[in-house]
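User: quick one, fold this
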Amino acid sequence: MRDFRSILNIIGFLLCIEAIAMIIPMLFDLYYKNQDWLQFFYSSLITFIIGIILYISFRKKNIKLGIRQAFLLTILSWLIIALFGAIPFIYTSSSLSYTDAFFESVSGITTTGSTVIFNIESLSEGILIWRSLLQWFGGIGIIVLAMAILPTLQIGGMQLLHMEHDDPYEKTIPKVNRFVLELFLLYVSLSIICALLYIIAGMSVFDAVIHAMTTISTGGFSNYDQSFYHFNSFRIEIISIIFMLVGSLPFVLYLQVIHNQGKSIINDDQIKLFFLILIIVTFVTAIWLSLKQSQDFLLSLRVSLFNITSILTGTGYSSSNFSNWGSFGTIIMMVIMFIGGCAGSTTGGIKIFRLQILFRGAITQIKKLTQPHAVLLMRFNGKTVSENTYNSIMGFFFMYIFLFIISAISLSFFNLDFLTAFSAAASAISNVGPGLGDLIGPNGNYFLLDNAAKWILSFTMIIGRLEIFTFLVLLSINFWKY
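Assistant:
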């Protein structure tokens, strides 16, 4: 644990990548003749210099990370990338305070999609691209974290994800670097396909690039204040729904399909439940809107499908103000904020597989009451769930709800009403984006919140994104004992 060289070396490498990424919005600003290109250049230069110094100064022949170093690297890398990612928001024409810039950067890199920016259309092309790039890189970062790191650390039952690709898949891709490379190429390919389809459906090339990056990453940043209501196009909404769903499914299963294991997706337990929840909630909400708000059923179905998909997948796009859907609509949106998508995807939330195992665990406990001597096993995707895995998921669920409550109570100190505080905490820890109510709902944003509230939400977004225990373990005294 004393050896921090490997951690600093990797962080330096990540900062160099971030610095290179800043060149992309700089080029956009140069093309559109915006003066912000110079600020992106300086931001990139500062980030690169610090990154290369760390990379060279702490370079080792063999980088080996123990479990403690892996925990520390995970949380530090996300924090530092967010810190440096905030620089362009401060010094470009967006002119945000550091609190707002950090909030926007964290919201981007964690693929949350909450924003503090009013009149987004007035921003330069470079800063709009930068917001989307943060979410795009955050999306692939989450997939790699979920597939390569969390299963090894056994965070919140993620070891089950390791089981899913450990046997058949590691025979095809025995090395982690090859596995990550294939994930990245798949991610890039899906992003390009999404952008092309957006263009065919009627988006401009610039809009298509922006929204493709934030759709496949289930991030939700748009370059319009009205989000997808700006387009008011059913074709564009359908494309967005498809790729939001693509981003919310386990990416390892796509690779299994590529390697001739196509039945994996059809037989996956969490995917079946995910689509069942989506279908039921969409139709029930559409019926509610049709009956209670006197809307045409097909229009209600269209509105429900897009917005429920967006919130369930944690993307955060909107095509209507669902804060005005009435009491039933408000409760539905609040509940699905917590659910999230599948493990190994770009989504946040509790995750479908944990809810399945918790439910099956409850059923097993009921059976044990009537059959105390029976040997009862829980199974997930055909594999037995061990007691350690179940306890890990129980612990995750408890801490998830506990931290959500703490966050909501903390926000209430800043004179926020119940709905605003409650939904802001839920949205942050589940990495959804918009909350509920007039202030932070689909038609509002987080700008008017107190600065202290923004810092609370920023760290809540990071904790939620890193599956909670990755952060909480750093608070343990035993973690720092040598």
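User: anything notable?
Assistant: The CA atoms of residues 109 and 137 lie 7 Å apart.
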